[in-house]
Amino acid sequence: MIDIFLIAASIENAQCIVACLEESGVRYRLCTAYGSVRQLPMHARMVRSADLLIVDDANLNAPALDGIGQTLASAPTLNCMLVTPRPSAALTGAALRVGVRRVLSWPLDHQAVGDVLAKIDMQRRGPGRRGARVVALASSKGGSGTTLIAVNLAWALAARRDRRVLLIDLNQQFADASLLMANRPPPMTLADLCSRNEQFDAALFDACTMRVRANLDLLAGAGDPLKAAELSPAQLERILTLVRERYDAVLIDVGTSLNPSTVRALAHSDAISMVVRQNPLYLHGGRRMLDIFRELGHPASKVRVVVNQYDKNAQINLPMLERTLGAKVAHQLPRDDQSVDDALRRGVPLVASARDSGLAQGIGLLANMLWPPGAERRRRLVRLSATGPDLPPQLKPGA
Ligand SMILES: Nc1ncnc2c1ncn2[C@@H]1O[C@H](COP(=O)(O)OP(=O)(O)OP(=O)(O)O)[C@@H](O)[C@H]1O
Ligand SMILES: [Mg+2]
């Protein structure tokens, strides 16, 4: 829940802004005053206790921005968004310099408003917040190994760290995490969950997730690009808000797509792991992706570059790769065709079928890097009351 103070120029403008807030899916409490930015001092106390100040004013000028700057300086956790027709580059620049987060014009960009709200909601939950640590896994180009890594990280966290883990497959193309996770189809998918928007609650969520093992669930991807495209950022927002409370670790396989929903998932994530390979095409995509992360406001410290199928003799070595990407490589994973193929044939992640392999061990180290042990509160495994064997019967070797 975030607290918003809105100064609106008219009832009509306020209604348009409220429609955007509603569409964002973020829970909020709103206090509205009508007038101009000149009224700001009259509401100083209320504004300072809000999380977000929205000022809708057609006549923003330098003294008005100074006033906003002073308000922001006196309330370090306050965020501010301005709405004004045709903001000039100079006005936008000056506003950003005094600490305004976003300057928007009419008609409002619903997506931009939703992203600002999602970020503030994340911040509010803060470092001391309870709930899952969320990590998004992104692919600089198709086939980098993101899904294989996501599935194995999820399994490793669930098996070795006794955490409640959820993997969300947000791949837009032919989502395939369920194939690597278990040799049975998921009961329902993200698309089913979103198609029953009005009934969305914890029970429907449970019905749509696949129980892979006692403390590991998978929310399978739509498997159909057309259905995947129907997922709205607001729907995803509701899902992420729910799962943060229910799990200790959440992994989101965003694949290669950067669209309104995956951008929202990134905003919700505590860290982003971008997977690349030592190939010019992956580096080209990786560099662009890192630029976009920066433009979206994700600090470099939030992003971890992982080199998959690492070859120490490859022409593109680590220093060259880091120079090209302009970022440090956080981790490398070896190539291991045999373990990968064997795991796929058996329908289990390789961290279970080849746990001593270099690749499984590398994934264990990556899990510790992305979810530092002890960083999350260990929660009681509520849904573990009917704890079964480690592997579902049909996944046991030789079954
Ligand atoms: N370290 C590895 N060693 C051997 N094979 C690997 C390794 N990592 C991934 N692979 C193989 O590479 C292929 C692509 O992997 P995966 O599907 O995980 O990539 P992706 O980035 O998720 O692809 P997509 O863009 O289709 O979502 C798969 O056949 C997978 O088994
Ligand atoms: Mg994939």
UniProtKB/TrEMBL annotation:
Domain (AAA): residue spans on this chain: 133-296
Secretion signal span: none
Pfam annotation, one family: AAA_31
InterPro entries on file: AAA_dom, P-loop_NTPase, ParA/MinD_ATPase
Transmembrane segments: none
The protein's name: AAA family ATPase
